[in-house]
Amino acid sequence: MSFDYGPNYKSLVQAVQEGGTSTLEAVKKSSEERGLGVSSTSLISRLGEKIEEPKTPEKTLLNKFKKVKEENQKLKDLYKSLETETGSEDVSGLKPQEKPMETAFKLIDDLKANYDMTTEQAAGFVGNLWHETGGFKFMQELKPTIEGSKGGLAFAQWTGPRRTQFENLLEELGDLPADSYEGNWAMITEEFDTTERGALNEILGATTVEDAATATSKFYLRPGKPMLDKRIENANMIYKAYQENMQE
Known about the structure:
Number of strands: 0
Structural class: mainly alpha
Helix content: 55-70%
Low-confidence stretches: 1-13, 36-51, 78-93
Mean pLDDT: 77
């Protein structure tokens, strides 16, 4: 069964749909004052049960923002859950140093104590290792320069024969993990005392953080793409943090 409402009813419906609840209230009040019959007020009441506020551009934008915010929160929760599951490990499966700056400070202290380095020289050396590992986060090179190779490993991202030497040293020391401080320090001292004695002398000849960082890159690590400005930047950052820590 269908109903054919008259023009007045159609106008009323259209007015309420376009104007929202504010129009509805005004129509109700006007109807009461003018003494409209039950049928009109009943229609107004029925419309009032279904009518919604019109969607303004501001409200539409707010709803979109709310949706984006909810999606962002879901992504954050997902990231946190993945981080917990993996233990913050990188794709190599090797755990990063839990406290990167503490690792940097310990290296500086050991270099000063064992090789009479100045703080500037030690910071220049450690700044290079920080650069190589992304802040002691990536123990295994993510994208090896030589296709098909194992890539760099650990603090200095040792490659080729130096990586093999490092892995053999870890085995000799009781199968130490490649991300262990003890294993990395053993490799550094092994090289400084033998094959990399010349590189050590170059670093010991530096008088500034910048010079030490440059000498470490050029003579000890010998990377294909030095990006020296980044190495120096990291070295200066570590030097400043170390000095501030000493004053505390």
